[in-house]
Fold this protein.
Amino acid sequence: MTILNNPSDGLHPELIVLFRAIAYFKSIAYEDLLNLCLPKIMGENDDAVKIRLRGSLNNWIKLGLFKRDGDNVELNDRFD
């Protein structure tokens, strides 16, 4: 029997909304990006969703799709 190890780099909808926002603005402040991408109807679950969105963003920064430039997030130059 094998053990499946499926690491996750975030949910696809989270990646799509992050990518589209960064591509549109070219450079956006990290916290502004998270606040922009959070659904406004979540109510009491905002913290959990923000933590998940932040984790997804950080994973994609580590993988090289996005990059941090000071406080701002941008697309990696390879994807402009």
Remarks:
- The longest helix spans residues 46-63.
- The two ends are 44 Å apart (CA to CA).
- The chain has a mean pLDDT of 84.
